Amino acid sequence: MPEHRIFTTAFAKVYPLYVQKAERKSRTKEEVDQVICWLTGYDRAGLQRQIEQGSDFATFFAQAPAMHPNSSKITGVVCGVRVEEVEDPLMRRIRQLDKLVDELAKGKKMESVLR
Description:
InterPro entries: SP1917_dom_sf, UCP033199
Strand content: under 5%
Strand order of the largest sheet: 1-2
Oligomer: single chain
Protein name: DUF2200 domain-containing protein
Pfam families: DUF2200
Organism: Ramlibacter cellulosilyticus
């Protein structure tokens, strides 16, 4: 099966889109960062380093300090795909991140988003 294009896309290219999506719904860049750090175990400096280095999604998740143990509780549909049914582990992580940003943008309380 061919590799998905998103795997080799720079995280830094998609990150501003996450922030814009949240900000359109009166959420903040800081809240987006909090969600990303919760999921991946990066601290803010580590997240910033990944953005500055231009790491692609595969590298971003491969170098993540520790995926949150509750990440398996991230369920639901993103782009018409059930997050918990995604076979590829990397694609599932990307979809989990998409889902968290979606929930944040939809106005969910941070306590609910961060399970």
